[in-house]
Amino acid sequence: MIMLTTKVTKEKRRVSIATKFNLLTIFIILVTAAGISYFLIQNATSHIYRNLINHGLIVAGMASQTSEYSIYTGDKESMKQIIESLEVDEDIAYVCLFDKEKRQLMGKSFKPGLVIPPVPATSMTDSGFPLKIIHEEFINTEDGNRYLSFLSPVIGFIDTKPIDGLLSNKGSTSQEIIGYVHLGLSLQNLYKRIKKFQISTLAFTFLFIFIGVILTLFLTKRITAPIKRL
User: How many angstroms separate the CA atoms of 137 and 186, rounded?
Assistant: First the structure.
């Protein structure tokens, strides 16, 4: 009697082929969906971050070119116009213009409560021409947010013969640093873009899993039905 009861219990505990197939297929779907989602999110995050850096490099380079005459002549009005023209960019947090001694000529913060950090002390004079734009990420102690800082040199083409030393002829070999543009980009919009992408990716993943499970159950039923009848 005991042996018969044990045999019946083992029969009840035996998992059917259809259930095993369903569990295996669902496990494969979950692992595949998680891997694809992680890969997409990591690549998208890296791509968005690189785009923001490239955006900062382009804006800082253009600001250096347009502020060349203003810094050389000390024209405050044109400096103000250059800074205000950059305010329309929602990623830019602050802009500062410096002379060649890194003394601030004019600056403005576009984010409430953001104190403009000091200009990096990195020396560019020994690196030769053309000079590269320096960028680094930092945390502002005032609001706890992350920012990208860009320091772009303003290059002047100087000729000692004319009265006005700033030449429009860029073929001159007498290049020197006449100032700097210090630009800061906020990472808050970056995090918002990444969060939106993560939400859309997770929604697509859940939809993929749901459809995969439904198809698995349907196909398992169609495959195992003839076996059960036999």
Answer: 10
Taking alpha carbons only, the member of 212, 198, 203, 147 closest to residue 45 is 198
Rounded CA separation 98/8 (Å)? 87
CA pair distance 230, 228, nearest whole angstrom: 5
Q: What is the pLDDT of residues 92-147, one digit of tens each?
A: 889 999 988 888 888 888 887 777 777 766 555 444 555 688 888 888 777 778 88
Contacts of 163 (CB under 8 A, 6+ apart): none
Q: Residue 61: CB partners within 8 Å, gap ≥ 6? A: 133, 152
Q: What is the DSSP string of 178-205?
A: EEEEEEEEESHHHHHHHHHHHHHHHHHH
Q: List, in sequence order, every residue forming a beta bridge with 107; answer none if it has no partner.
A: 96
- Cα dihedral angle (29, 32, 35, 37), rounded to 10 degrees? -60
pTM of the model: 0.72
The neighbouring-strand residues paired with 137 are 148
| Alpha helices, H only, the chain | 2-13, 17-66, 68-73, 76-85, 188-229
Output the six-digit token pair for 29: 């779907």
Q: Residue 84 and residue 76: Cα distance in Å, rounded? A: 12
Residue 175 pairs in a beta bridge with 157
